[in-house]
Records
---
Amino acid sequence: MKTLIARGHREFAGVTYHHGSEIPSGVLPPEIVDKWIDWRWLDELNGTERRSLYRMFPAFSGCNESESLTSDELDELTLPA
Amino acid sequence: MVTVKGLMSNHERVSTTSYGVPLGAQVTLPDPDGKIAAALSREAAERDLAMIRAMNAPAWQPTEPEVRAPIFPDNWQELVAQLDQDIVERGVGVDRKKLVALGQERFARLLEADGEARNERVIGTKTDLTSWPSVQFAFATASALATGVPRRKTSEAYAGVGDEREQAAQILGFGDLWKAIQEPRAVRAIYKFRDTLEDLVFGRSLLERLNKNGRARSSFFAGGSGQRVDLFRSWLSVLQPPLVSIEVVNPLWSLFQWAAQDKAPPVDSLSLAQEFSGLRAPSLRELKLAQAVLNGVLLNLDDWTLWDYCGRCIRASVDHALLMSWRRELVKRYPVVTAFHRHVASCFYRREGDHLRFQPRRYRLFIDRMVSDSLAAVSALVAVAVADCKPVARFQTWVFTEQPPTAIAEIYAALARAFPGARFQLDIK
């Protein structure tokens, strides 16, 4: 899965995305994503390079996709069975 | 001929003259059977044997120190096992809507903290703030991982000293990042992000554990400990019905006072913070620091280990010399606890050649186990005493019930029976 990161301060549909902040998947139409990547307004990072916060907490962010937690997080921060 | 003269000046001088054995005469010894010579020979042989034994001593046999142990009622294990099973089966009631609403609020805060952290020069757009290797790489690239701990000299390494200081200087995870002194604002921003992230991870797992009846079940609620207890605390407002908390106040002090049989009055962290900071109204940070110093001294931490412990509690570096002066003051004030630790530590020496070497790791393990077991016993005793009030969670120093306890005296009586002479204080909210 890919994580989209804004380069510079960008605005789309009335929402401002600051430099380095994540743009949730599904917000930008695919053609805009392609254009912004070509214009270097956007970085498309691998999910292992930078995890998506929206996918980590789908119940709180409203994201449709989800991402599993790491084994360290599961061992140290979550409720065991 | 030999002449010996007495040398005592205040006595009359005495001269003794000996002419030796005349040539050809037979010497008559006082030991005609040779018994005395045989005894002398035997003694010499025993001395030699003892010396050889001492030089080749067997391996040191470590002995566990004898410390006071709590006195439990009969069938205690079965009682606690039954209680824990009840707690796990009952689960904790959670209001799903409230949980999601609070989660959304915290997620917005997480994005805000992420933005703040990315304003810092050391953190690039590709830095994954959820991953320690990524953050470590970002700091290392900016040469911002230097600490204020003096480096261990070669002469110290050769002499085998300064090991603790070297360990204290290591930055091995998010918990150690406060030691990096060059980018304090970035460190604060990362901690703000990290705290919110950890809260949300716990919240996510709480949501995933919720069943159709609105209750979350987990073995963690029966005797859990560590960081997750603090995370659970941060979600208390979403639990239903509102729980009653029974907390042991200043548990380490009560425990060591009981173990060492100290009669000194209980410690007030506020007055300690006032004394250390010189302020009449110390801030929350100063209160936490005073509590950390006290706990560190109670656990017999010293030097850079104490510095590391206190730094972790307040996430800031404390002046080492100042910390040591506070430690000396507390050690003087509580000599019985200090003597208790000296007694326990004396059992953790290992023979190495002709001397004994202290084993700090084994000693620390023993103290940690003693504290952990005793606090687990305290929470179990409190939970058993309030078993009728539907306890839903018990941690080392906390018990949560759905109904308020009716007989508080019973809780104190149960604690007094198990820990005779202890002065545990409970805070019931």
---
Amino acid sequence: MTLTLEKTEQALAPLVEVKDLKHVYGGGKGGPGLVVLEDVNLTLKADEIVGLLGRSGSGKSTLLRSIAGLITPTAGTVSVSDVPGDDAAHGVAMVFQSFALFPWLTVQKNVEVGLEAQGVPADIRRKRTLAAIDLIGLDGFENAYPKELSGGMRQRVGLARALVVQPSVLLMDEPFSALDVLTAETLRTDLLDLWSEGRMPIRSILLVTHNIEEAVLMCDRILVFSSNPGRVIAEIKVDLPQPRKRLDPAFRALVDDIYARMTAKPKAPAREGHFPGTGLGMALTHISTNTLNGMIETLTGGPYNGSADLADLARELQMEADELLPIAETLQLMRFAELAGRTLRLTAPGRRYDSFDVDQRKQMFAQHLLAYVPLAAHIRRVLDDRASHQAPASRFRDELEDFMSEAYAEETMDAIISWGRYGEIFAYHEDDDRFSLDDPA
Amino acid sequence: MVFLSSDRLNAGLIARFARRELAPNRFDLIAMALIGGFAVLVVHGARQMNLPVSALSTTPISLDLARLPEYALRSTLRMFAAITLSLLFTFGVATLAAKSRKAELVIIPMLDIAQSIPIISFLAFTMTFFVGLFPGSQLGVECAAIFLVFTSQAWNMAFSFYQSLRTLPGDLAEVTQQFGLSPWQKFIKLELPFATPALIWNTMMSMSGGWFFVVASEAFTVGKTQYMLPGIGSWLAVAIDRMDLRAVAWAVGAMAVIIVAYDQLLFRPIVAWADKFRFEQTASAEEPESWFLDLLRRTRLAGRLLKPLSRLGRLITRSPRRRQTAPTPVSPRLAQWINGVWTVVTSAAVVGAVWAIARYLFLHLDLADLLTAVGDGFLTFTRVAILIVVASLIWVPIGVWIGLRPTWSRRVQALVQFLAAFPANVIFPFAVMGIVAWRLDPNIWLSPLIILGTQWYILFNVVAGASALPNDLKEAAGIFHLRAWQRWRDFILPGIMPYYVTGALTASGGSWNASVVAEAVSWGHTTEVAKGLGSFIAEATAAGNIPKVALGATVMSIFVIALNRSLWRPLFNYAEKNFRLT
């Protein structure tokens, strides 16, 4: 892109500046709370699309909402500069993952919402609304209600609603993740076309996503976030010329590189795999045993022969990093596989597991579960020690909550219950929320 | 308890809400004490005024058939006034509770208690109070009647609105904030539309329960004073007094016409219109229809009439603009201080209220009265319990049979809705005639009257539950040839359980109210009495013994609230948690 001198100068002035942002959820009653964002700095300049990339729980949405003024961060500053000479008071406007349209308003009324809030007179409102609807390819649908539209059309309404208030920065919160693959691709392309032709009244886009390819496809700059707490672990400049091609080797290399960065082991030595916390305090992700088995079978079969590149796996299984990484990490925790860089490789026990029948698999799963997941061993030990061979689940949940937030404790309990049931190392009764050793068999 | 709408989404939200408030907490006690104390003060104040209540001149009611349309209209207008009042109350109080945490802590338990209280037992108080407010004029009686109907309707409407406001979809709330809508614009664009379907459903249910109270309040005797308001209720009272069977039949007919007209001309159009506010991004499978709404939409006149309205609407939405900002937390010290003041104020009010109640009751009553009231309470409790069981045994199989046949259930639903709205007290005279004619024991044979009007809630909900049973489960039950008993035990009963419990608890609450009217019924100069708390209150009212009425009403409130807390609510939560098919 060639820039005139004037444009360069404009581009130097930051549109959004975030300094030392920190956000903590909960922690109202003396507890430490959950740190979702820490030490986050971000500068957004004109004429760039910046992507915030990270797994769920990395606080990227929280950062976006802080910039949108929806959340007051615990510490740090957010400043949004208004464009001089522009009468629009809003520096930012947001597009939502769930579209967030009022179901009882027509397309036109939905788009008008922001202008009405600004007190723009009806005739000007109408003119600007129709122009935005036209720009975004929605003409003909002015009088439709959201329920009559497909997902792609609904997100176009969301986009028109954001553009019509003429923000200098467009904030997009996973705008394409609720759409099917084809629709998402069309919308991305249309958005990029409008952007490169300069037909939108915006000067910069901030895009939250967990889809690596989407980030590489659209962004000039990508900030990669770690989880627990969310920190910027890498800033990657994307210099590939637009329009970018997914099959371009340079594109592929960049995607693989980001995969590697997202799976890179954190520096802290005390961590097992990528699960935050150690020992009993390890927060687990609830992955179905069917999924674990399926992943092991995929790794042995097909072209992989026990070792696969994560990016290739993601493409074949149509999964995003967000979904794939926890599976890989759970396999690693159970010592059925190893993560090295961006490669997932089956271990010897993992290969053996694959060759087993159902009962043998369950036995082996139980052994590994007791050996490598401290919580499972702990529950089993308590049940063995007690004469009644029973224990209320709340007891373990409370223990977990000493280490982690309530939501993580809940997820960890779900995981351990389903794995424990599969390995038949204990039984769980939902009605009265207790563990026992009695086996219905 | 808020009536569940047919909308499953809402039902889920309600369930979540109900679960949170499972255990009776100190706020219930606070609310109860405050309401009771207020009632005592009101009566006390009214009596202090020492007004010649008997001096009230009432227009004599004539049984001239030509007057019946006018009476019917008067009753209808009374209902309309009450429902308007209920809506205003809902918008004000429920909004306040949803927006202010402090107000919420007092309002919500108050509403919860208020909707459990059998308010008809308080009619004597409200009459005394309002007649005292407007001495010597019909207006006081009119206000008392409207107020009574209002108290039978407002609570569940306010609850539904409050719950809607508390469960606004998060992303839309963010939109209003991000695009800087003013609080008023947020109310018009988001809160009101979102709350509309549930509110309309609850208004319909309130209205349906309200006719009973309209009839009951239009002719009322406290001691030597008889209050008569021109309307269907007073027409009925005069007809009963004169043993005019033909006039009673006319009252039944007129009531039927009113209810059908209300349904067809008011509620059906509103429900059909409000379908667009359902919070679903997909079109509903079966859209509600209304011939009257279609007619209105087709006529040009209506459009022209509505035009100024829509202009007014636009004017309303264009309001002073104030941008919302992210909420800033109050400093902890200030919050602590406010909390302290709040606690002191509420505690003082509660202590005062308890003292007022105790002093009042001790002054006028002895222990024997209390024992009689409690004993009678258990009699009425037994009656209600047995009747709920009997009604369930009859209506659950029938309801399931109907619900599993879609063409039938649609037709029957409308009929049952009509029957539920029909004020059962209009039919009571026929029962007394039967008891007198066959010399039956009123203790047994008056009992069915208690559930005459409220049993329909059971049928209504069971039909709704059975027709909501998912098709795949029906097919699975068929394919595996489930035996009759197994089919009921494993499939049908669990499937309809949440619906049945809702119906049964509504029927139970309504039955306590009905007992005040149903345990002592007259025909001419014969009065048949069944011993129970209802007749205890009715007789005390007739004798003008206000302290005894207060005692009876308090004991009944305690019975109903205890029953709700110890039986219905846990049952409801259990059913919602375990058997709600989503």
---
Amino acid sequence: MHLTDEEKAILNGGQGQMMQRVMATIVTYGEALEAERLVGITGSGHFVIAHAIPGIAPSMEMLDDLIAAGLQTAYPFTVDPAAPLDVDNWRLTESQTAKLRRMYREQALYDRKLKALGCRGPDGYTCTPYLPEVGNTPRRGDILAWSESACVVFANAVLGARTNRNGAIIDLLCNIAGKVPLSGFLTDEGRRATWCLRIKTRARPLPQLLGAAIGRLVLADVPYIVGLDRFLGGGIDADTRDYLHELGAAAAAAGAVGLFHVENVTPEAVDAGPAIMDRDCQTAVIDEDTLADLTASYPVLWHDAAAAPAKCFLGCPHLSRNQLQKWSAAIENALQRHGRRRLAVHTTICAAPPVLQAFAKSRAWRRLIDAGVRFSPACAMQLFDNDLSRDDAVITNSTKLRTYTHARFFPDDDIADIVVTGRLRHAP
Amino acid sequence: MKTTFKGRAVLPGRLDGRALVTHRGFNTYASFFTSIHEPTGAAVCADSGNPDLFGRNLAGRILCLPRTAGSTSSGAVWLRLAKWDVTPLAMLFSRPIDPLAAGGLVVADLWAGRRIVTVDQLGEDFLNTVQNGDHIAVHADGTVQILNVCG
């Protein structure tokens, strides 16, 4: 790999032993990816490493070594949602709470270390860093080294920024060096579509289901999606942004999709049109049958498959204010429809801290609180770590949560009725 | 039947061992989900979505796979497994290595001092030929030999 004189000097120890080690790691990473050279990072990082659980976070010793050497990221970074230590919002038992607190006993110390390395602080803990309330919104063409699969795919597809699906730790090291190997989605060639997917549903498909179908079909490849603009319109408004945000997160979880193009909608598809597809790309059709087959394939992984739903987690990935308003309306309509005032299923809705702060000023927030809804800035998925919620019958509308946990998936329309009635008669 | 395959040595090394094979994207995080919380001396695959490997101990084996998939958290998973010495001996990819796997394996190599010998671009023939339990020799130049083919 070609290195500049500055990079060679760092590799030879010109900026100290620790920076030498950081650069050696990035260069080896680049050689593994067959990159020709490194390129400069032009925007803030977003990392998956929010939790102090060993095995998911970098080791404390590693962070200590980086901090002791005075190293920080080139730009302030955001990280994934906080640990679910706001236990009241999750209705945890005493035993679950004790186990959770043991698991996260080093979280406060870990958060201080992230801050020392350049983290923006508590408001930057979310998987929707690009929302305006959070403000880590890359520009088109920005070179990034992000992790968190849901954020990577949104940054690439919807914002037109350029990042690979980096893993935890290498994301931090690249952002400290301010350099990343030029490969994959950072190159024009790596952003070309190798699949053409035709959406032939009669109505707008649920983004969480369509994303899952796409992820299963193309795995890590880049799809060019035709026919979705019938439902989304051209360009990207708040509704389309939210739709693509859910679609991307689901595609990344069900497969390993890091970039997609939607004809007439996403920026590179608008500019290039079908010319962004490879000539010999694979083709497939997604219709109602595809989506029905997909939901039918989901196993019920609850401890007691016949149990009544005990909890509902919404907001994986975190919701926007727009989405919070929509869920408010859906739940309030369901309450009216069934003549109820309070929900039958403990329901927790997650969003970024500044999004929740803004939403808490609305009447909808008050009405949902009165109906029993709880709001959290944390990550529901972490409640399943180490079998913490093994015996809870959890429902969700999230493909990601369904993929990684035993939470049971239901479409949005069914969820509102289930959380109000406590019954699964709407189960697919 | 062809039993020697030439790939690209990503993290070179010379070793022998027994193969475990998956034909689908290896979800690193889901596979090691239960192995990163307590040191047990094993790394039993916990990914119920991967019938090729579910329930098998991956520690000390040569893992043959197309590529990895799943959560980007897996970068730190490799470091943890390396520190507990329960990694696979080697990772043999039929396709070019993906960034998620590359980052995790490089960090384990340079920050935990644990070389998980890695070869990529071995081709689909390799993955179609190698089977669970095959005795495999991996050479530093990226050559992989299946020494005795299991039933």
